[in-house]
Amino acid sequence: MAERGSGAGLRRGLGNRHIQFIALGGAIGTGLFYGSSESIGQAGPAVVVCYLVGGAVIFLIMRALGEMSVHRPRPGSFSAYAYEYWSPRAGFVAGWNYWFDYTVVSMAELSVVGEYVQFWAPQVPAWVSSAVFLVVVTAVNLVTVKAYGEVEFWLALVKIVAIGGMIVGGLLLICTGIGGPPIGVANLWAHGGFAPHGLRGVLLGLVVVMFSFGGVELIGVTAGEAGDPARTIPRAINGVVGRILIFYVGTIAVMVTLHPWDRLGSAGSPLVTIFSGLGIAGAAHILNVVVLTAAVSAFNSFLYANGRMLYSLAQQGNAPDALASTNRHGSPWLGVLVSAACTGTTVLLDYLFPGRAFVYIMAVATISVVITWVLILVTHLKFRARLAADGQRSDFPMPGHPVTTWIALAFLAGVVALMALSPSYRIALVVGPIWVALLLVAHELRRRAGSGRPPRIDG
């Protein structure tokens, strides 16, 4: 289908390695390197269990999205599916919530970039560094999708290799000591027990952990530009979930084994704290490069997704037509620039509330990503009902459907309930319903205004 506006439309230029690393780039970022401080503080060493449980639920959500993506690869992913299988209202809410979600998460990634830079240059205000990276990443997102995929591939590869090296190095310290006495595994229970705050602490830690997994659904967004979605999407989904679990569980397990959980602190990256305390020459500087790269990589992935989501919403008639324009490289340039400008408000937040912006942003991002996952699961239920009514079969069916879909929905409802117990997250329970209500009102206003034209969705 020809695109609206200028340019040549989105192009299928992403291979399997690009798609996997874009999703890894989005998922392995601030939630692991920076936000893990809070989850460790809540659950202690039992945070490893939180990541295992959360990862299992994320796998179910990804399989639900993957089934729809293989059946009908679309720009905008689940927004287009919600529009088609549920209702125009659901497509509107899903698309704009996702855009809001990853604008907010992009702000979280960008807000900590300045703090990582301050590790070397404490005299440089955090907002200045954030502004510089905002401009650079926006420029990357205006090139061809294949070039963007290559950039994100190498950014994600840096942190993945570094995480693997950190896990191996940590295991050597635990088992052999590398020239000194082995550290052993006593830190897992020697400071108040494996779950020092009991079941309540584990459950509260689970809330933060779920935010950490936000970003894996980027695989669905890439389906519209995947070279061979029927082959690449299943491989990417099955592969990326396992790798994320290895990197998350492995990294967190090494962190809480090497260092007493109650001394990791709540400021800065726990990884840098650990290796600085161990006195390994240059390790803290190397790790700070890694966490900085991770945040930039995640921000890069989210800006990519937001530009494509605005493109899809415009094609549905749920956003201004101009947002469906692409440049000569096939990038939805206006959607990218609008998303970048909104993300840039974090620079102002860092200036006005230095050191506190991340906490508030993460709380709002968590409720927003939960809304996204709920919409994916409910849309999947309706998608499967449509397939059954039409006598069609799925090429990549979700295992255990519909029981597993309902289990995932019940789990997400529990996460929302748990947010009420955490002072840091209660604000999200106020912002979330207000945001959904605003979206419903906005859709009703758009419906009444009526553009008089049918949607045009790429296929």
From TrEMBL:
<feature type="transmembrane region" description="Helical">
    <location>
        <begin position="333"/>
        <end position="353"/>
    </location>
</feature>
<protein>
    <submittedName>
        <fullName>Aromatic amino acid transport protein AroP</fullName>
    </submittedName>
</protein>
<feature type="transmembrane region" description="Helical">
    <location>
        <begin position="199"/>
        <end position="219"/>
    </location>
</feature>
<feature type="transmembrane region" description="Helical">
    <location>
        <begin position="427"/>
        <end position="445"/>
    </location>
</feature>
<feature type="transmembrane region" description="Helical">
    <location>
        <begin position="403"/>
        <end position="421"/>
    </location>
</feature>
<dbReference type="GO" id="GO:0005886">
    <property type="term" value="C:plasma membrane"/>
</dbReference>
<feature type="transmembrane region" description="Helical">
    <location>
        <begin position="359"/>
        <end position="383"/>
    </location>
</feature>
<feature type="transmembrane region" description="Helical">
    <location>
        <begin position="156"/>
        <end position="179"/>
    </location>
</feature>
<feature type="transmembrane region" description="Helical">
    <location>
        <begin position="43"/>
        <end position="65"/>
    </location>
</feature>
<dbReference type="GO" id="GO:0055085">
    <property type="term" value="P:transmembrane transport"/>
</dbReference>
<keyword id="KW-0997">Cell inner membrane</keyword>
<feature type="transmembrane region" description="Helical">
    <location>
        <begin position="240"/>
        <end position="261"/>
    </location>
</feature>
<feature type="transmembrane region" description="Helical">
    <location>
        <begin position="21"/>
        <end position="37"/>
    </location>
</feature>
<dbReference type="GO" id="GO:0006865">
    <property type="term" value="P:amino acid transport"/>
</dbReference>
<feature type="transmembrane region" description="Helical">
    <location>
        <begin position="124"/>
        <end position="144"/>
    </location>
</feature>
<feature type="transmembrane region" description="Helical">
    <location>
        <begin position="273"/>
        <end position="299"/>
    </location>
</feature>
<keyword id="KW-0029">Amino-acid transport</keyword>
<keyword id="KW-0813">Transport</keyword>
<keyword id="KW-0812">Transmembrane</keyword>
<dbReference type="InterPro" id="IPR004840">
    <property type="entry name" value="Amino_acid_permease_CS"/>
</dbReference>
<comment type="similarity">
    <text>Belongs to the amino acid-polyamine-organocation (APC) superfamily. Amino acid transporter (AAT) (TC 2.A.3.1) family.</text>
</comment>
<feature type="domain" description="Amino acid permease/ SLC12A">
    <location>
        <begin position="18"/>
        <end position="448"/>
    </location>
</feature>
<keyword id="KW-1133">Transmembrane helix</keyword>
<feature type="transmembrane region" description="Helical">
    <location>
        <begin position="86"/>
        <end position="104"/>
    </location>
</feature>
<keyword id="KW-0472">Membrane</keyword>
<dbReference type="Pfam" id="PF00324">
    <property type="entry name" value="AA_permease"/>
</dbReference>
<dbReference type="InterPro" id="IPR004841">
    <property type="entry name" value="AA-permease/SLC12A_dom"/>
</dbReference>
<keyword id="KW-1003">Cell membrane</keyword>
